[in-house]
Each structure stands twice: as C-alpha cells, then as structure tokens.
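hi! just following up on the protien thing from before. the input was this:
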Amino acid sequence: VIHTEGSDWWTEYNYDESLSVVNFPIYPLNDKIGQSYKGVEQVLQNYPYVLFNKQMWYFTQSNIRDERNAIYASDRIQDKLDDLDFSNIMTLDHEKNHEYWIVSGNEAYIYNYNIDEFYHYTFAHEAVSICYVDEELVFATSTGQFYKMDDTTLLDDTTLVSAYAELGWYDYGYVNRFKVLNLMWVQIDPQTNDAV
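and the predicted 3d structure came back as:
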C-alpha cells in the first residue's frame, strides 16, 4: 500500500518474462483517503491504519479499488483528536496488548483493536519518542529521560495514576425502575480473560 497526502495506491511484484524485467505497477486504491502525517501508518491484524486529517482510518482490503474499503474508525473520540496537536504525532502498535497508540506531547489515545475500545492516558512528562526496547514499551521525554510502561505499577514517575471509565448506556435490566431510582451501585468483577 502506498499512501499519499490525498489518496492511497497499491502495488505488487510483477515479473515480465518477455523483457526479463521486474516491475511494480501502481494501481489506485482510494481517491479520497490518504495519510496526512509521515511515519504514522501501522498494520494492525493485517489491516493498514492511517491518520488522515486528524482522523483514524483503516482499509479492509488493500488490493481492490472500492471506496467502501476505507473505514472511519475514530468517530467515538474525534472531538478529542481534533483538539490534539498533530505537529509531532507518533503512533505505535503495542501488539502484545492489542493496542494502537496515538501519542502527542503528554497525551496518548490508545485503541484496543481486540475489544474495539479507546483509552486516554496523560503522561507525567511530554513524550518526544516512543518505541520498543527488549519487548518493553519505552518513551523518551523532552528532558532526556526514559520511561518504561509497566502494567504492574500504579505510579507514573512517583505520581499515583488516577483512572475512571466512561461507559455507554446500559439499563442492567431495570428500565422500569429508573423513574423512581435515585442512586445505583454497580460492582465490577474482573475475570481472568478481561482486558483493562
């Protein structure tokens, strides 16, 4: 797949036996969706993901020209992405956790493509680079420090991480009681195969 600023193309290896020449013919894939930022494409579960005009898109097929192959994937967090500074945008496929990271400054929007959910994380410091070192997610700060992302700690550089969840509407089977219900306590019971 070849991404340009305003369109996407695809190519494949082609050997011309009559001329004994290898060539790579280029075919159009999508005329409306491209990639607006350099170096941010990631391949997640064999689908190419791109950032185009502060929007996250992926292609379901990468060798057939069909406008329906481009899927807009960031609609649930688009208002947050619109406010993000994309001048130094970075992305990373944290494949071990099935996460696609979009990082700018000290903000990270994380898409868990295994369960189709988004997370937001605010780093204690501004991230200028993010990569893998010995299969560990590491980021560098503007002050020259390196930090490793650790799922087992509750601290971010000695600061306690505060977390909350914004969930969609769920009536818990009590729709008829909501007209007289003032407060409901809900217990969350994580199971061994759940992802947080």
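The radius of gyration is 21 Å.
The helical segments are 78-83.
cheers
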